[in-house]
Design a protein that fits this description.
The chain is of the alpha+beta class. It has eleven helices and 13 strands. It has two domains: 200 residues, 2-Layer Sandwich (Ribosomal Protein S5, domain 2); 178 residues, Alpha-Beta Plaits, CATH 3.30.70. It is globular. The structure holds alpha-D-galactopyranose.
């Protein structure tokens, strides 16, 4: 039986009704980290790891959820007049359902079984995949055509306003709108996208460090505050109107660095230089210049490590190990930070050796067993045959 057949069989066994099935992928970000909530540029791709659900509508307003990953089950009622976060996995589903309702969608109750292959804490967007698949399922069960850009916005809103994580739009957007064989360069202000084909001479290789530092959520929100502080301090001194760090060039920042506390300056420097790197990276890939793309990935990592301070010892190690392997164009941390995964661009013929050498060297250095795998960009959210 395929994974989906097992999931639908388990659903029938549990709920006794016939489900429909849906999937939404996790993602890897090639370059452009923490730029999304600064109205900037990012370049993620959807990957093979995905959240799947089997789901059937109910006649009432209850949503019953079962996770095949953990065996946990939970439920909530859409009619609850005062839903509160419970600080567990149900919040992503509850938050998404709430935002759909607030946006005016007439969804009804449902029985839902989740099976996700996106590792939690891997920096590969397990929560965005969950939100997007839940939103897609609830809309589809209600017979509502899904606007995948709107769905991404509502998933982000669920995180921001219900879960309490002030994330940007990147993860939900790529999970909802991924394109086979392509990364997407997303302008997070206009939400315009450009499909960036992945050069067939290279592969995207993800390495999950298997570490995730617990303070990640709080530190993430703190970084966002630093960016807002930077904008507030720079705006009065600049001749042009700035709404976000997207509107600040590296030259403008340098000219006015005296206005900022040292740490805020470094946080802003990461963002403004990262935006330039994403634009240059898209250009490099379009020209087939893999060396230039890799150098930008390397520079991005240093900027995250030293200016934005979102890396950690294990991730730095993994990046150092990756970079010295034959056939590697570049390597960097991917995702929110403080653990999670790295992404490397590796010559297609070198991938096999890269994978095993990186695993071995990382184990020898840290005692952790990294999961290292090459991935191919996948489509965004959609239905699955059950
Ligand atoms: C997390 C957030 C995204 C983005 C990345 C960093 O994955 O959910 O919105 O900010 O971190 O690039």
């Amino acid at each position: 039986m395929s994974g989906t057949e097992e999931l639908s069989a388990a659903f029938r066994g549990r709920f006794g009704t016939e489900p429909a099935c849906y999937r939404a992928p996790g993602r890897v970000n090639l370059i452009g980290e923490h730029t999304d909530y600064n109205d900037g540029f990012v370049m993620p791709a959807a990957i093979e790891y995905e959240a799947r659900v089997a789901a059937a509508p109910r006649r009432d307003t209850r949503v019953r959820l079962v996770s095949r990953n953990t065996g946990d089950s939970t439920e909530f009622d859409l009619a609850d007049p005062d839903p509160r976060p419970r600080k567990d996995w149900s919040d992503y589903a509850r938050g998404t359902a709430l935002m759909l309702e607030r946006a005016g969608y007439a969804i009804s109750g449902a029985d839902i079984m989740l099976d996700s292959s996106v590792p939690i804490g891997s920096g590969l967007s397990s929560s965005a995949a969950f939100e997007v698949v839940i939103g897609y399922a609830l809309l589809s069960l209600a017979g509502i055509a899904v606007d995948t850009v709107e769905l991404a916005k509502l998933g982000q809103k669920a995180e921001n306003e219900f879960v309490g994580m002030r994330c940007g739009i990147m993860d939900q957007f790529i999970s909802a709108n991924g394109a086979v064989g392509h990364a997407l360069m997303i302008d997070c202000r206009s939400l315009e996208t450009r499909k960036v084909p992945i050069d067939s001479r290279a592969r995207i290789v993800v390495a999950n460090s298997m570490v995730h530092h617990a303070h990640a959520g709080g530190e993430y929100n703190k970084r966002r505050v630093s960016c807002e502080q930077g904008v507030a301090l720079l705006a009065p001194a600049l001749e042009t109107d700035i709404k976000a760090l997207r509107d600040v060039t590296p030259e403008m920042l340098e000219a006015h660095k005296a206005l900022l506390p040292e740490e805020t300056y470094r946080r802003c420097r990461h963002i403004v230089t990262e935006n330039v790197r994403v634009l240059n990276a898209a250009e490099a890939l379009a020209k087939g210049n893999l060396g230039a793309f890799g150098a930008l990935m390397d520079a991005s990592h240093l900027s995250m490590r030293d200016d934005y301070e979102i890396s950690c010892a294990e991730i730095d190690r993994l990046v150092e190990i990756a970079r010295v392997q034959p056939g590697v164009f570049g390597s960097r941390m991917t995702g929110g930070g403080f653990g999670g995964s790295t992404v490397s661009l590796v010559a297609a013929e070198a991938v096999e050796d890269f994978t095993s050498a990186t695993r071995d060297a990382y184990f020898a250095a840290t005692g952790h067993r990294a999961e290292v795998f090459a991935c191919s960009p996948q489509a965004g959210v959609g239905p699955l045959a059950c």
